[in-house]
Every structure is written in structure tokens, then in C-alpha cells.
Design a protein that fits this description.
alpha/beta; two-stranded antiparallel ribbon; 10% strand; disordered C terminus
């Protein structure tokens, strides 16, 4: 039977996932400045060039980033407040070493986790910090705001037989809690790949492709038959390292421009509402430049 996301019903074998050293330190743990971030990624030149990514004639697995494409996790449980509480908990000497990219107040909890992970890799401090961040994220799920059309798209893809997974830097506990509240947990099953399975090592957060590789392994999907929907530079870079096609989601023009700057081909400000709409967008990922 023809796959609804496989308009050409292609049967040619797809390339296997590009290997990577999951244990290698990753030089990308500073706050995310898009241009500097890309420049600092030593492996970029050796990644699959955009033109070599598998042709978009089959989509059998869709990987969703969580905070953004699925819901606004911190809309009513603001991230700056979470960051402030985490900073207040840290020892003063460590707190002074946690800095934002522009030198201003640190408002992103992930920046704090990355920084402490560099200072104390594998230590008790980063482990406890990660546990506290997880509790904050779980609390945030109670007031998280669903992304428009996300539930509609998730259910439509599930009905079409597409395998779904979450690949996120958030805690899988928080992901599971939100999906259960939203009635979407069954659409993803066990394929929730959140903050690195070893919480002592934040170096495995995206843009390291660890959680995406785990998703491919758990779903049995090949990189060439998968698409990631993400809203951040880290999502794009993680997908690119494995040769996974990337659909950008950005509700602000400035955020979309950043994704285009680093190499994203298609960025939408509204999620597709059906399998057919997603297939049409994926079809544009074989073209150079932005869609007409």
C-alpha cells in the first residue's frame, strides 16, 4: 500500500545513518549565538552537504522538538524565573562563572545546565541541578500552551502510519507528562528522547545528535526516511549531522531568518495540518534556497 507521505512510492534502499562518535566532547556548549555557534562546530565541514541528503520521496518517521513545535512549555511558567531559582541554588562561586552570551542576566535554564556541566562534568552538582531543572519543567507542563495545529498534525501523521518521536533537550519526564495531559502520549509510544540519558553530561544536548540517534535506533527508521521539525539552530545542526531533513518552525520573522542563515531550506510560521501538507513541504527540501 502506498504511504500517504510517499507520493512516488519509492522502494530504493535508503542510506544508513551517518556514524558519529557519541562520546566525543562537543564544542558547542556556550549560549546559542547562531553565527558563532555554526563557526564553532568543527565537524560541520565533514557533515553531509545539503544536496546529498536523501531525496524526499519517503517520510516514514517524524522527529519533533518539544518546546516550540509541540507546545510553549514556559509560556506561563517563565524560563527567566526558572533560571533565577537555579542560579540562587548554586554556590556563589559557581554562580559567578555562569554568564550569558551578551554578558547580561542569564534567563535560559539550559545555559546554566551547560555551563555547570562544563565546570563539573559527571559530578554531583550538575546531577542535582539537572534534577531541579526537571522538576521545574514538569511543573511547567501544567500550564504549557499547545502549539497551534500541533495536535492535529501529530494525530494525522499517526493515522497515516508515520512513526513519531520527540527529540528534545527537555526532560523526557516533562515530555511524557505534557503528552498525557494533551491526550497525545499514545501517538509517540516509547519514543521520547529527551535530555541525555546520562544527565551528568550536558555535552550530549543538541546540537550533539545523541537524542536524534537514539530516536532513529528506537523507531528503526533510517536518517534518509526521517524529517525533524524544530525551531532552533541546535535542532538544525543535530539533524544535519545525521543527514536528517529539517523543517524549521518559527513564529517570529527574526527567528526564521536565523534558521535560514545557518542553512535551513524551509521555515514555516504555522505547522502543516495534515500528512499531505507536510509531504508538500518536505518536497521542497530537495531544492536549493528558499521556497518560491
Amino acid at each position: 500500500m502506498t504511504d500517504p507521505l510517499d507520493p512516488l512510492d519509492a522502494k530504493a534502499p535508503l542510506d544508513a545513518m551517518t556514524p558519529f562518535d557519541a562520546k566525543a566532547p562537543h564544542d558547542s556548549m556556550a549560549p546559542l549565538d547562531a553565527k558563532a555557534f555554526v563557526d564553532s562546530m568543527a565537524p560541520l565541514d565533514s557533515m553531509a552537504p545539503l544536496g546529498s541528503i536523501a531525496p524526499p520521496d519517503a517520510v516514514r518517521c517524524v522527529l519533533f522538538d518539544f518546546d516550540g513545535p509541540v507546545c510553549a512549555l514556559f509560556r506561563n511558567h517563565p524560563a527567566p524565573g526558572v533560571a533565577g531559582r537555579l542560579l540562587d541554588w548554586l554556590p556563589a562561586g559557581v554562580r559567578r562563572l555562569v554568564r550569558s552570551e551578551d554578558g547580561g542576566p542569564v534567563t535560559d535554564p539550559q545555559v546554566i545546565l551547560r555551563a555547570v556541566g562544563q565546570l563539573d562534568p559527571g559530578g554531583a552538582l550538575v546531577s542535582e541541578l539537572e534534577a531541579r531543572l526537571t522538576e521545574e519543567e514538569v511543573l511547567a507542563t501544567a500550564s504549557a500552551v499547545p502549539t497551534p495545529r500541533a495536535a492535529e498534525l501529530i494525530r494525522a501523521l499517526g493515522d497515516a502510519g508515520v512513526v513519531l518521536a520527540v527529540t528534545t533537550n527537555n526532560s523526557p519526564r516533562a515530555v511524557r507528562r505534557y503528552l498525557e495531559r494533551a491526550g497525545l502520549a499514545d501517538c509517540f509510544g516509547p519514543h521520547l528522547h529527551g535530555r541525555t540519558h546520562d544527565p551528568h553530561d550536558p555535552r550530549r544536548l543538541k546540537p550533539h545528535p545523541d537524542c536524534l540517534a537514539r530516536a532513529l535506533a528506537s523507531t528503526g527508521a533510517a536518517a534518509g526516511e526521517s524529517v525533524m521539525i524544530g525551531d532552533a539552530v541546535a535542532d538544525f545542526l543535530a539533524a544535519k549531522q545525521l543527514g536528517i531533513r529539517f523543517l524549521g518552525y518559527a513564529t517570529r520573522e527574526s527567528k526564521g531568518e536565523v534558521l535560514y542563515e545557518v542553512g535551513a531550506r524551509v521555515v514555516v510560521d504555522e505547522l502543516p495540518g495534515s500528512a499531505a501538507e507536510l509531504a508538500a513541504l518536505v518536497g521542497q527540501l530537495s531544492r536549493d534556497g528558499r521556497p518560491a
